[in-house]
Amino acid sequence: MNRSQLVGEMKKRVFEANLLLPKVGLVKLTWGNVSEINREIGAIVIKPSGVPYAEMKVEDMVVTNLEGDVVEGTMKPSSDLATHVELYKAFSKIQSVVHTHSKNAVMWAQAGRAIPAYGTTHADTFYGEVPCTRQLTNEEVEKAYEKETGKVIIETFAENKLDPLATPGVLVYGHGPFTWGETPQKAVENGIVLDEIADMASMTEVINENCQSIPDYLLDKHYFRKHGATAYYGQK
Amino acid sequence: MNRSQLVGEMKKRVFEANLLLPKVGLVKLTWGNVSEINREIGAIVIKPSGVPYAEMKVEDMVVTNLEGDVVEGTMKPSSDLATHVELYKAFSKIQSVVHTHSKNAVMWAQAGRAIPAYGTTHADTFYGEVPCTRQLTNEEVEKAYEKETGKVIIETFAENKLDPLATPGVLVYGHGPFTWGETPQKAVENGIVLDEIADMASMTEVINENCQSIPDYLLDKHYFRKHGATAYYGQK
Amino acid sequence: MNRSQLVGEMKKRVFEANLLLPKVGLVKLTWGNVSEINREIGAIVIKPSGVPYAEMKVEDMVVTNLEGDVVEGTMKPSSDLATHVELYKAFSKIQSVVHTHSKNAVMWAQAGRAIPAYGTTHADTFYGEVPCTRQLTNEEVEKAYEKETGKVIIETFAENKLDPLATPGVLVYGHGPFTWGETPQKAVENGIVLDEIADMASMTEVINENCQSIPDYLLDKHYFRKHGATAYYGQK
Amino acid sequence: MNRSQLVGEMKKRVFEANLLLPKVGLVKLTWGNVSEINREIGAIVIKPSGVPYAEMKVEDMVVTNLEGDVVEGTMKPSSDLATHVELYKAFSKIQSVVHTHSKNAVMWAQAGRAIPAYGTTHADTFYGEVPCTRQLTNEEVEKAYEKETGKVIIETFAENKLDPLATPGVLVYGHGPFTWGETPQKAVENGIVLDEIADMASMTEVINENCQSIPDYLLDKHYFRKHGATAYYGQK
């Protein structure tokens, strides 16, 4: 396929993944955005800013270069674009980023806590706790808020020596979740999982205030059942 | 458009906004009402009292003057009309008022607490905490309950020096939420946001009993990303 | 109408009210039943026992006399029939009884607590707290469980000097809610309200552990806005 | 019917029961599986591993012998097959096993607690608390994880002297629920009940931290209303 065809396919995938967000209950009103990158052709496709999902069309998807400068489309891109761009630069193996204000993940982000790996539902997707960034400083917020949001995520992964493929999501303190994946569909699925395990984790603590994270050997077992060379879940 | 056409348009908007309430899950049975005002033609349009949503027709919408006296329609207006009238008198820049018993907002109203601004989902719509009124006195309830409900909201905004455009909603102690906006659609959306952030806030406190409101600079950033001359969210 | 026609109308109303239960989310599987009484013709119509809602037909409704003896129909009546019969005998002004295992009401029944009147949503339907019965004794359970369930409800109302019209529902300790009303539709609506206020009340206590019931004058105001000679809510 | 016809019927029932899981809200994405056994013809039918529910066809169901070796079908069976096989070997009277990650049951599994019998909704299906297994050891997880998951369930039932027909489900510590029954439909229904009573139980404890299990005589009454020779619920 030529560049135009590839971008056309990206637009379709990004459009459909955006529509999936309200359908699966991760997004109310216009609170969410999905993007996809193709590094070889130098293109990012992202949802336009603040357009109601019911009115959005596939041709409204905005195309930018790898720096986030709009190169195609008449609409403004999602205001969170700069965060996506930073993540694509730092995490070279991810092809799609999703941001939502999904309720349960936001609760943990507002609480400023990483989500412990309390069970195998968590371990099937996230290899260890889902981290929460530090609060952004006044200077960071005023200078370049969305870009700095990306940077604090990257800082969190660097400091905790996390692999973004093994931990495909994060909580931004006081804000909400970002997830990512190899495709828009997969990045949305990781957002579904993140919200579900956030919900499970908060009530787990209510049911047993002394609850413990699962042991490392069970975390390993479940994560590697589904990921990597030794995976045996699914049809591949 | 002449007065009759303008009122006809108002009726349609108010009718559709009322139907939106049960559809988005803010209202069960007949627990909610939406109104719209046009100060220039001296008209308020509001839902009739206690009519099931499934049976309600656009022509059932009741038209009153700016004092709340019915001038058109055979049905009784919502019993909360007097509250709407007070809010329209005091808050001259709002064009629509919505009242519901949406679950999560009611929980905070019953708890008698303002909702702290724990995150950006809150700050995107409410510039600071969502206030909760004091309890009405016996005299106020017996004298003119619905009118006094409006007055205690106005008192709460005056005492806390709040701008009703920057804080488009309130909790009435022991009762429930009122929200408002420039259009019925927008006032309902503010009701959706209020219920969602109420839900998020209560579990935020369960997850971290020492959780903190977001810093003012982040509140400013998110609120002014979407509102005022420096807004850059959306397509305008 | 003759007796046959009246019973036919009762069957339709009872059938439709039973179908409403899963539709509004009060019932899973076969956990619920609705009945209606016509004391003049000496007939009670009730749902058959354990029939899946999807397969149930209007002609499956069971007709009994005022003692609960089946007089028409080939199916067994709901196993809770004896509870309904006791309530109809003691509460002479109610025409329909509904029993469900609706989640939030059951939580309070299992906790063994009456639901305090924390707000106007509660006061619009229940004039004061929703009572919870004592635990049944071993003897009562073994002797005539369903009949004794009715008796302990009646005992609870007598001891607390409650009017079943002003308190159209109850929690049976360790079991779940019964509600009633003038029609099957109204009894189901009271079940909807009871479950909703149960949900609101539990989180109200989580949000503010020192929350208070609303003052009597507000309880009076809201209850009598909707009920009795001075009611002004609705179109009558 | 001959073997081929019997297996064909099993495939249909297993397929339909699997589709029921997301429909009733017990399963997100591909997190669940249902199987059925016919010991006489030596066949187990189970869902294929990791296939999206929307794409799954009845002919994708995998057939194995009683040891779990695939004998028919081109797809890999659910990775949890070995757990099902162990349960079928030890619990000779069950014909179907269901595994999900339903939210409320998982919360208790993650909390590592058995669910107390707080009410009759629980007692109608589970004759006593729903047990939770111990944590699997490192050796067990590494040796034969899914088989050992079955074994720890069996160990839990043996140690607590539980009858799998009277306690048709279990929580695996840090993982989630397994339920079973005489048919796939019944095993799914037991999964619905388990998730519902898990939800009820956690909030029961929030509403009353000193809540008590129902007395044995009430547990007996409700369980034997629906089960065994003295049952009188339903139409049989």
UniProtKB/TrEMBL annotation, chains A, B, C, D:
PANTHER family xrefs: FUCULOSE PHOSPHATE ALDOLASE, L-RIBULOSE-5-PHOSPHATE 4-EPIMERASE SGBE
Database matches in InterPro entries: Aldolase_class_II_sugar_metab, Aldolase_II/adducin_N, Aldolase_II/adducin_N_sf
Official protein name in the record: L-ribulose-5-phosphate 4-epimerase
Known role: Involved in the degradation of L-arabinose. Catalyzes the interconversion of L-ribulose 5-phosphate (LRu5P) and D-xylulose 5-phosphate (D-Xu5P) via a retroaldol/aldol mechanism (carbon-carbon bond cleavage analogous to a class II aldolase reaction).
Upper taxonomic lineage: Bacteria, Bacillati, Bacillota, Bacilli, Lactobacillales
Listed cofactors: Zn(2+)
An example Gene Ontology biological process: arabinose catabolic process
Keywords of the record: Arabinose catabolism, Carbohydrate metabolism, Isomerase, Metal-binding, Zinc
Entry superkingdom: Bacteria
Pathway where it operates: Carbohydrate degradation; L-arabinose degradation via L-ribulose; D-xylulose 5-phosphate from L-arabinose (bacterial route): step 3/3
Catalytic activity: L-ribulose 5-phosphate = D-xylulose 5-phosphate
MF (Gene Ontology): aldehyde-lyase activity; L-ribulose-phosphate 4-epimerase activity; metal ion binding
